[in-house]
């Protein structure tokens, strides 16, 4: 059974909409329950354990104290500035995703008994890797992730040193993959930590990439592969799309987790020579079985786009059509 996250604000419409949106997305291991009156909340809390309570800051103090809840976080309308030094607060007039990340960050500091995750079994891991540069690898990975996310729960991870994602998304991230690797190496990773980091682009969830390339080296390939394995086994995602970077040892460790490794290629002499060396490396290191998981792809050229969202436009160009055929099982690639 999921733990209860109760929401009450003097504006009942706000609480109801927040609960509806968060429950629909199923991003956190809580059931969000909205209350239109303090009396109903008090009666509910008297009979059901409320693990986490989001409470409007304008609720009178005596009413706040009458509610039984394990942890309380205030919904602030003054920019998230602390109302009380002993009670955390989040800014209420931001996206529901941003509120969820902040709330899970607060709760994840001392979660006690972890809430149950409604997992769907072990998520399949799809890798995207190529030793060839300028081959639309990331564009392909994002397109595939967004198309898969129309039918199932998908999480996109980028393991490149410089992904360009923050520029494409026009966003500065407060937390990212670096934080999850830190928690994993310190033994404090859990589903709440994951929820505190995950962002969305449409229906596709993603973890912002590391903020500094050195973070990947410091974490080590075992931790990176271990974190991916933990997410696949302990989260509610059906599929993980992993955009694998160029680090040799990390790439090899992650590729071993992948059911399929999609490999965009080019056919100029230098690119073909790199692919040949990769196959030789697999054979020489006892990893020849990885060749059977690789699906080579000759991606279509796509022209320049207008001023709109580049990632969304990928879906409706040649690359989007190509990936749709690929996912339907048509004979594209090699």
TrEMBL record:
Superkingdom, natural source: Bacteria
Protein name as annotated: ParA family protein
Organism of this sequence: Clostridium fessum
């Amino acid at each position: 059974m999921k733990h209860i996250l109760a929401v009450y604000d003097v504006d009942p419409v706000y609480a109801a909409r927040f609960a509806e949106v968060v429950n629909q997305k199923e991003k956190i291991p809580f059931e969000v329950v909205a209350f239109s009156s303090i009396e109903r909340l008090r009666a509910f809390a008297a009979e059901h354990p409320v693990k986490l309570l989001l409470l409007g800051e304008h609720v009178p103090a005596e009413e706040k104290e009458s509610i039984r809840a394990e942890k309380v976080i205030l919904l602030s309308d003054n920019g998230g500035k602390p109302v009380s030094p002993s009670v955390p607060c989040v800014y209420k007039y931001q996206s529901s995703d941003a509120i969820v990340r902040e709330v899970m960050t607060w709760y994840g500091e001392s979660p006690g008994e972890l809430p149950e995750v409604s997992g769907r079994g072990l998520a399949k891991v799809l890798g995207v890797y190529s030793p060839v540069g300028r081959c639309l690898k990331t564009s392909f990975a994002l397109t595939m992730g967004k198309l898969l996310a129309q039918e199932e729960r998908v999480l996109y991870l980028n393991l490149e040193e410089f992904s360009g994602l923050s520029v494409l998304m026009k966003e500065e991230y407060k937390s990212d993959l670096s934080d999850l690797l830190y928690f994993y190496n310190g033994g404090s990773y859990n589903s709440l930590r994951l929820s505190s980091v995950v962002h969305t682009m449409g229906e596709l969830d993603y973890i912002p990439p590391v903020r500094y390339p050195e973070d990947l080296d410091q974490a080590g390939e075992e931790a990176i592969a271990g974190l991916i394995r933990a997410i696949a086994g302990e989260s509610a995602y059906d599929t993980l799309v992993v955009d694998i970077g160029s680090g040799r040892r990390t790439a090899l460790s992650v590729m071993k987790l992948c059911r399929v490794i999609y490999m965009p290629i080019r056919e100029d002499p230098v690119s073909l020579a790199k692919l040949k060396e990769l196959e030789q490396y697999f054979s020489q290191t006892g990893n020849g079985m990885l060749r059977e998981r690789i699906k080579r792809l000759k991606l279509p050229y796509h022209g320049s786009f207008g001023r709109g969202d580049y990632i969304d436009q990928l879906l409706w160009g040649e690359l989007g059509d190509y990936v749709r055929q690929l996912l339907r099982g048509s004979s594209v690639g090699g």
